[in-house]
Amino acid sequence: MGKLNYAANISLDGYICDAEGKFDWSMPDEVTHGFINDLERGAGTLLLGRKLYDVLKVWDQIHRSEDNPAVIADYASIWSEAHKIVYSTTMIEPETERTEVRSVFDEQDVRLMKEASETDLSIGGAMLAAQALQAGLVDEIHFIISPIIVGGGKRALPDGLRLELKTLGQRSFASGVAYLGYRVSNVS
């Protein structure tokens, strides 16, 4: 059975992007990027919200390029090898390989995916992750915290959510970025 993991780059005040939709403050350096690669490496399936998919789909082109630093080429391979499911009510056809589109997030379908999977699954996109968190489907939360307070924007966690967590790990990087990982205690 696979675990469903939610990983996100966030500001210290808990946002994935600022009020203008910008997230350039969260771009990882090489060491942090390598750490993120290792977090994502075990995921055989990526469940993605449409906006996050639109940001990440560039990795398909990066994967085809041979002129990338090792850490970039590594993530491009992780992206390319994973099965991707994009949840969107407006997108009809995927724009990347190994990708399918679903119009509705179905809790039971995700439960069955977890039960049948021999690898972990990763969920990304704050609104999509909120649905999975509220349904009790997320097993682990991994936050890469940038040393910035942005004061508003799109929150990484939904209001009204209460979860019991157990610390999996923590790490600080020379760049000032910090990692916090948690196992959700009350997963259904």
Structure description:
There is one protein chain. With 188 residues, this protein is an alpha/beta fold. The chain has one domain (4-184): 3-Layer(aba) Sandwich (Dihydrofolate Reductase, subunit A), CATH 3.40.430.10. 30% of the residues lie in helices and 31% in strands. The chain has helices at residues 30-40, 50-56, 58-64, 70-81, 107-116, 126-134, and strands at 4-11, 15-18, 43-49, 83-87, 99-102, 120-124, 140-146, 153-155, 165-172, 178-184. The strands form 2 sheets. Strands 5-4-3-6-1-7-10-9 form an 8-stranded mixed β-sheet, sandwiched between helices. It has a two-stranded antiparallel sheet with strand order 2-8. A hairpin with a 5-residue loop joins β9 and β10. The relative contact order is 0.25. The model has no long low-confidence stretch (mean pLDDT 95).
